[in-house]
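// run 5 | inverse folding | seed 20
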């Protein structure tokens, strides 16, 4: 077991699954900056080859347990950061079998490979969708599981599996629950490139650039301006949270779950106003009907993460978050 004192002189190898995707690639970038050796497993079904150094990339599907064991045999690692999951709530309601097969069965295959290879530390990229539609905000970690989509349910199932693997196999894990990852590393070449894109900020950019109106799903919610309120967290701050969770485990810390958020909510209209201010152009939009299962307000308390892992967000201004996303969008046009 690595002790805290060892971390100052030794940077172990970390395996990152889904490391060619949006949050995964940012976390790989930060791990390398911090001096860690990194290997990436990604089947590239949702990730992008150009996000990863080819020397670090293993194009492997999570379902292939033997291939995962092969990667871990060639590149022994101290821990895994697990991002490889499908994340679109709407898609999960249309093809739930895809989400349970990839998110749950894929995670179980990965955990099996880890046990066979003697790797017993995982940071799991979970979601605040495990809480469903909570009765009050801010959301605390001890709120009950209440997912309202197969996507949220798939993350609950993995969190429960991790609990059993902790108690029965001694595999320690940290689950990080967050909502609206956004922004891009300043000056970098990594950003949101989802296909199809479902996130508000890049969709607003698309509306600005094409003139095709953005649809606001509901403008009659019981919020100050009638639109949904969400907690927007910068992707680099998320990456930092994953590394702090990793270092907690490497230092011998126990398992747990933490919310990751700013603790401040912003409405859809406020996001559009920030896009207008950053781009210098008006975002065309139209009001549409509410989406089923969309709560009026979702804001997470990250007090536990701040207190126990000493995390704090660098990006607390919505406009600054949008500005980093616009920089990436402008660079790739």
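// decoded
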């Amino acid at each position: 077991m690595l002790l805290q004192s060892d971390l100052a002189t030794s940077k172990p190898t970390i395996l990152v699954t889904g490391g060619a995707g949006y949050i995964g690639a940012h976390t790989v970038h930060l791990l390398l900056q911090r001096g860690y050796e990194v290997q990436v497993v990604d089947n590239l079904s949702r990730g992008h080859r150009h996000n990863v150094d080819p020397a670090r990339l293993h194009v492997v599907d999570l379902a292939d347990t033997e291939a995962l064991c092969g990667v871990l045999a060639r590149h022994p690692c101290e821990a895994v950061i697990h991002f490889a999951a499908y994340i679109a709530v709407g898609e999960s309601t249309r093809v739930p079998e895809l989400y349970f097969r990839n998110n749950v069965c894929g995670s179980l295959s990965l955990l099996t490979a880890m046990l066979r290879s003697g790797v017993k530390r995982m940071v799991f990229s979970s979601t605040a969708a495990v809480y469903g539609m909570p009765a009050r905000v801010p959301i605390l970690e001890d709120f009950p599981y209440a997912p309202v989509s197969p996507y949220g349910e798939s993350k609950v199932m993995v969190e429960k599996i991790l609990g059993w693997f902790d108690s029965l196999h001694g595999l320690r894990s940290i689950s990080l629950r967050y909502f609206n990852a956004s922004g891009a590393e300043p000056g970098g070449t990594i950003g949101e490139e989802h296909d199809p894109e479902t996130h508000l900020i890049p969709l607003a950019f698309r509306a600005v650039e094409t003139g095709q109106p953005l649809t606001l799903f509901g403008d009659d919610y019981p919020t100050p301006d009638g639109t949904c309120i969400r907690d927007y967290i910068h992707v680099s701050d998320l990456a930092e949270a994953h590394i702090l969770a990793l270092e907690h485990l490497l230092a011998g810390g126990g398992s747990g779950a933490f919310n990751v958020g700013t603790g401040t909510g912003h409405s859809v209209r406020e996001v559009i106003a920030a896009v207008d201010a950053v781009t210098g152009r008006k975002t065309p939009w139209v009001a549409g009907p509410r989406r089923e299962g969309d709560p009026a307000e979702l804001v997470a308390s990250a007090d536990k993460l701040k207190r126990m892992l000493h995390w704090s967000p660098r990006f607390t201004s919505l406009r600054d978050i949008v500005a980093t996303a616009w920089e990436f969008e402008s660079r790739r046009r």
